[in-house]
Amino acid sequence: QVQLQESGPGLVKPSETLSLTCSVSGDSINNYYSTWIRQTPGKGLEWIGYFHSSGTNYNPSLKRRVTISLDRSQNVFSLKLRSVTAADTGVYYCAIHRSWASAFFENWGQGALVTVSS
Amino acid sequence: IVVTQSPATLSVSPGERATLSCTTSLSVTDKLAWYQQKPGQAPRLLIYDVSTRATGTPARFSGSGLATKFTLSISSLQSEDFAIYFCHQYNHWPLTFGGGTKVEIK
To answer: Pick from B45, B93, B94: which is nearest to A104 by CB?
Structure first.
């Protein structure tokens, strides 16, 4: 069974960059749409975007601040969210799905709480 | 696509039936999933494609609906079913989720 685990700083200062990594075990990330989802007090569950061999796809509401990338050699994928504010405080999940048309999530990481504060 | 869930909170006694609603602002055909979330945990997939139970989902959970109106039913609530439930449409990008229904003990 595929397992995912987020890692990264739990505290980020306003205007700086939030960086998280998702380690995947049990299968190659080449087979999946590698996705980030967050859960914030203000917006609830929000899809951030994915990286796939066919390309990337980001939520328009976050697109100008987000980059998702892969390191196939390490079987990990990463999230960078620039110019953060308090509204970006929340739990960030990595998740995967196999098919563009069946973009539901059976596999999630346990979540990483990120607080934006000075 | 805006996804709206109702009610926000549902108070149910153990053993009773619970019915949760999910409405989408445009048709999502049959591309709708339901998740269960407990405190401190990631969402867990229960149902996808409106009515297909995910691996490990008990038979007391059932999904129905089409286009813009969907329902998750829990036939006889067990203690482990008290949680928050989210619906999720994946017919349109960006993917969107409902605000959740909290099922609490009456």
So the answer is: B45
A55 shares contact with chain B (CB less than 8 Å): no
Query: Cis link prior to B43 (omega < 30° from 0)?
Result: no
Chain B touched by A44 (CB under 8 Å):
yes
CA distance B89 to chain A (A): 8
pLDDT digits (tens, 9 = 90+) for A91-108: 999 999 999 999 999 999
Question: Residue B36: its pLDDT value, please?
Answer: 98
Task: Please write the tens of the pLDDT for every residue from B53-102.
Answer: 999 999 999 999 999 999 999 999 999 999 999 999 999 999 999 999 99
A-B contacts (CB, under 8 Å) = 50
For residue A61, what are the CA distances in angstroms to A30, A33, B2, B76?
26, 20, 14, 40
CB contact (8 A) between residue A104 and residue B33: yes
Place of tokens 């200062």: A13
Q: Is A61 on the interface with B (CB under 8 A)?
A: yes
pLDDT score at A57: 97
Distances (CA, A) of A109 to A24, A62, B28, B40, B45: 9, 21, 26, 12, 13
Among B54, B99, B100, the residue with its CB nearest the CB of A106 is B54
Q: Which amino acid is at A70?
A: L
CA dist., res. A62 & res. A47, Å (int): 10
